[in-house]
Structure formats: C-alpha cells, structure tokens
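Re: the pair you flagged

First of the two:
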Amino acid sequence: MILSPLVVIGGAMAGLGLVVAAHGIVPARPDLKDVLARMDASRLENLERPRRTTVPANAMEKAGAALLRSVGESTLRLPHRELELIRRSPAAHLGRKLGLALYGLLLPVVAVALATVGGVLIPFSVPAVAGIGCAVLFWFAPDLQIKQQAVEAKEDCRYAVKAYLRLVQLERAADAAPTQALKRAAEVGEGWVFTRIRDTITRAELEGISPWDGLKRLSVELDVPELGAPADIIAIAGEEGAAVGDSLGAQARSLSGALVTSAKAAANKASEKMVMPVAVLVLLMTVYVGYPALARIMAS
C-alpha cells in the first residue's frame, strides 16, 4: 500500500492537533523556579500596589526612569522616605525635576528672544548664565515641594494611626487574639495607610515574623513613630498575655491630644501670616478714604 504525501502530511497534522489538544486539556506541571519566585516574600512586587507595577505614564517619567537606570539611586540621593509618604515613584520625581530644569534653562532664552524682537539687545552671556542658574534652582524645587507634601502626608498618617488604635482596642475588647486584632482592624479601614498596614501584616506572615515586628519596621520606613506604638503594646499582649485595651485607649487619647495641639499651632501660624496682609489692606483703605478729605482741607 502506497501512501501519498498529502495523506502523510494530513495524518501528521491531525496527530499534532490531538497532541496540542491533550496538552491543553491536561494541566501541565508548573515550573518549580516560577512557583518559588511567586512565593518568595522578599520580592516586593508580590504585595506592592498596582501603581508600582505600571509602566511610566508620560514622557517625563520615562526620561526619569532612564536617568535612574543610567546613573543609579545612590548617585542621585533621592528622598525615598518622603516619596514613600506621598506615594510617588522615583522615576516620576526625577521626570518632574528634569522637566522643571529644562523649563528653567529655556526661560531666560525665551525672555531674551522676546526682548530682541522688541529692539533690546542683550549679550549672549546673560541668558546663558541665567539659564544655568534657573535650571539649578528649578532642579531642587521639587525636593522642597515633596518635603512639605511629606509633612502633610505624615499628619494624615497620624490620624489614620489614631483610628487604627481605636479599632485594635475594639477588637481586643471583643476577645480577639493579638494577631487577629491587628489584621481585622486593618481590614476595616480605608486609605493608603491601612493598605500599607495590611500589606505589612501579610508580608510579615509570609516571612514568618510577628505582625507587630512588621508594623515597627513600617513605622521606621515611613518615619511615623506613632505607628510603632500599637506594635509595642500588642507585642506585650502577644508575648506575655497581658490585657492591653486600656493601654491602647490611653495611647489613642494621647495621640488625639497631640493632633489637636498640632492643629491649633498650624491655625495660629496661619493667623500670624495673615497679620501683615490685613494691616497693609487696612492702611491702603485708610489712605483711599482719607486722602480726598485731606486734599480738600489742604486746598481750602
């Protein structure tokens, strides 16, 4: 029996299709390396928020990422703690710095060009020196801005920690175990602070350490000592079995008093800043109202 080439090719294709179908139906054995990589708790991408895994959003962020890869974080000395508080990636921060530096470099050039069109001749050295100075000034401007934003974010974090203390106290009053009290209280709250707390507790479980140790580490990373307070108090309950409900309540009340004092100080500072503008406004209104009468008296 002689088989034609078409029959052989058709039979081979049918057999290959059956093999592919069987391979798709029967689950394949997962690669051990990939499984261990997904279970590795030291890899931050397992628990990080989606914002860190997304691609750069714009051209400036891409430029910042390229600069970060080529120069390195150690050379640039980025304020990682402040960036972590305001939830901004290092690439986005560098992109903003590059954009503002380029703006400062071109601003004197554009001003001199407009002056030249108007007939005013300015030497070339003036925009060159002014452009370099503005570029350096604008390069450091985002660092000052994120410091102020980090202070505000830290204040928001303290309010969230106060709420977290109250929630942990309620969970402990309901006879929840120390670990369960920390987890349940973190699941109730919303916002980026509670998200970080939940991620920290989950990472601590994967690493085989206690949740309060993870919270203490998070308080150091964010530079928020108030977050380490519930960790220390719950550690006493977890290690010695002590009742810590009253301690959590006292810590929450102390933090509330500190927040009220801070809010009053900020309000007083804002009121002091308004003294000079209000005084100048009153002086201008006095001159505006009194000058016509004074002019009439002097004329008569």
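Second of the two:
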Amino acid sequence: MTPTELAPRFFIAVAVILIFCKIVAWLLGQAGQPPVVSEMLAGVLLGPSLLGLLLPDVQAALFPPALIPVLYVVGQVGLVLFMFQAGYAFAGHRVPRLAGTAGAVSLAGVTVPLVLGVVLVVVAGDRVDIRPTGVALGVSAAFVGVALAITAFPMLARIITERGQAGTRHGSLALASGAIDDLVAWILLAVVLAFASGAVLPAVVTAGGAILFGLAAWLFGARVTGALLRLAEPVRMIAVVGLLFLTAWYTDEIGLYAVFGAFVVGAVMPHNEAADRIIDILTPVASALFLPLFFTFSGLRTEFALLGDPAVLLFAVVCIALAVAGKFGACWAAARVRGETQDTALRVGALMNARGLMQLIALNVGLEAGIVNSSLFTVLVLVALVTTLMTTPLLSLIERRRPAPIAEPVLVG
C-alpha cells in the first residue's frame, strides 16, 4: 500500500476511533467512569476481541496491516506528551509531611504485588502459554510482577481532583504514594528490560546510558528546562517539545524506551506559569487526539478469544485476584499499620489499585521488547481494565458507607 493510498485509510480510521471513543466515554460516563477508562475499553472493542469477531471484513478494511505501524508511531507521540505531563504532575505532588506514611504505603504497594506476580508465574511454569520462545522464566516472572506493581498515577490524580478531594488526608496520601510507586515501578521495568536482552553489550548500553541520562537530568535538567522556559513564544514551545523528542529518541536508542525520557523531562522541569501554559496546551492534544490511537493500537493486539483456553482463563482470574489483593490489600494494610483511620486506608487502597494507562504502556513496551506474548498481553490488559473499572464504583461504595469530610487534616506521617 503506497503512502497515497494509506493516507485516506489513516484519516477514516482516526475519525472512527475518535467518534467511537466519545460514544463509549459518554455511555460509561453515566456510570461515573473517567474518560481514560472509556478509551481503554473502546480500543479493545475496536480490535479482534469484538469488531474483528463480529465484522472481520470491516475491521480489516478499517485497520489494514500497513496502517498499524502508523498508529504505533502517532500513538507514541501521544505517549511522549502524556508521560511528559505525568512527570510534571509527579514533581508537583510531593508531600514531605507525608513522607513516612507514603513511603510505607508505596513500598507495600510495589513489593507485595511484585512478589505475588513472580510467584504466580513461577508456579504456572510452562503449564500456561504466557512466555515467548526463548524468554527465561525469571524474566517473564519479573515482568508480570512489575506490571502488577504499577499504579495509574495520572488517573489517580484526576479522580482525586474531580472529586474535590485534593486537600483531604487520603487524597494527599494517595498522590504521594502513587508518585513514589510509579517511579519505583518504572525503574524496575527498566532493570527487567536490561536483563531481558540476554546479551552483555545491550544491557551495558542500557545501564550505562541510563546512568548518564540520570546524572545529566539531575545536574542540568532543571537549569536547561528553566532556560528554555525563559524564551519568548513561540520559540519556547518549539524548544521544549524539541528537547522532549530528543530525550525520547535517546532513551529509545539505549533501550530504555521513549516513555522514560519523557517522564524525566516533565519531572525536572521547574513549575511556573510558563511551564503550566505548555502543559495546558499539550495535554488536551495528547488526551483528545493521540492517546485514543494508542488505545486502539493496544486493542488491535488484544485477543480475548485467547481466554478460551481454560489454562489461560484460570491464569487471568488468579492474576486479577492477586493484583487486587496485592495492591488494594497491601496499601490498606500499610496505611493501617502507620496509624491511618479505616476510612483513609480504604480510600488509599482503592485509588492505588487502579493500573490504567500506565500498565498498558508497560505492556506495549514488553511486547515490543519480545518478552510478552499475545496470551500474556491479553491477560494483563484484562487486569488493567478490571482494576481500573472498579476504582470509581469502589470509591463510591466506600463513601456511601463512610462519608468523607470535605477537608481532612494532613498530619505528620
């Protein structure tokens, strides 16, 4: 298919994706679900799991094989912009007075699901088809553990803000814990990817490149981004986006993947009016146009028909149960041990349990790296969907039984 033939296919595919996402968002919005949940589900429904099952000819015409790489590239642009915003939000939600409790909650929220995921894969062994040929059991186990340890920090922040709970004890604690949780999880994912290469040189390049990148970001990141923010418009926007894409290129080249570089640029950028303006311009573009393409790209790789295999279905059910127990249960328990009230601990556990877009990003990174096969990809997409879909109803249930005050005091933790 020539570029001239591909262009109209791209335009009609984008139109269908955006319209369908809006329809699903409106429907699920009636149940109180945030837009990102609807887009995740819409992407899956446009893939082989529903559209391809009911109308295979239509699905093939809308998404021909030649279009898939285009959706991937454009979706990557959305991910880079999204992770840039996520890094900026991460740096803006540090709560030092909650450091002790947030550290304990995030440690439990990473460690317990990580261990449970590793144990599950080790126990399942070769009885379930969840490993690509040539991938070591330890690599698959570590990847599943990290995937279960991820929290959807940006969505968590959006839910807290939309519910007017940013000034509450549980809102502040969940934001601080979620930020630490995701930072640790992304570092662990980078380690897994480095070991998964199986060769010494690529692992050395990744590790060495990551260390150099980290040092550069720590020593010069704030100064460089601060200098760019002082430029006049429209040069300022061009310079920041240029740095963002250059960083994404570098981290992709060393095997760390673009999302890591984008997150770090956002995290080191100073918080001021100029930076807020850039975020306010880029975030709607990423959320409204580019991210739905990423969701659809992920959906085209998700085949729920694979769950027809009893062994894979059982693995998926156990995986979901362990994901909820490991994240919700562990974060609730850690908060209680640190002296938090039952009300606060339950809300923190419910918020931390959502995996959302962050897990989908990790899954696609793992699939591109060749350490995830179609069955495991589908299982973990299901985990992301279930844990994300249950967040808002679970919070509503908790709040009906235990109404929260408008503003709870933020105590030293």
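The mean pLDDT is 85.

-B.
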